[in-house]
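tool=predict chain=A
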Amino acid sequence: MKRANQLQPLSRQHHLGLNIARHAKECPDDHAAITKHWSALTSYLNDMHEHFQIEDTLIANALLPYKETQLEVASVLETLEKQHKSLYEFMAKVQTSKEAKSDEVTVVEVKQLGTLLYDHIRFEERELFPIVERYLTEEELDAIYAASPDSIKRMDEQR
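tool=predict ok
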């Protein structure tokens, strides 16, 4: 599926996340594998703060005027908020247990986080971004691109 040019940097980040999450969902119950997958998941999520900020502010705020009149917009905004909240809560729980020096991460937690992330990215690519492309103006899409980190933009993108 061809994505709007302004959303392509975010989609590139999603591609990496899908790869990491898919492998994590299949993590064997082995200490080395758990450590490897957990490290990849948490590193990816820690690098996604700007990405989430763009979705939580620019995208959500631009879609907000359509929420009352367009059921599909209301639905994707609700799902986006719930999924981001679940990811934030899961990561906060893990951080709390790390600080308390409780048990190490389990294979169940790796698979849970992998599944949460995988499902979230699939939702954004299949549902949220098509809505964004349908409802946002060129100026709003350009603002999303401008806010995207330079590290995920391609050199040949002259937008």
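Residues 5-147 form one domain. Helices lie at 8-25, 31-46, 49-63, 71-99, 107-135, 138-147.
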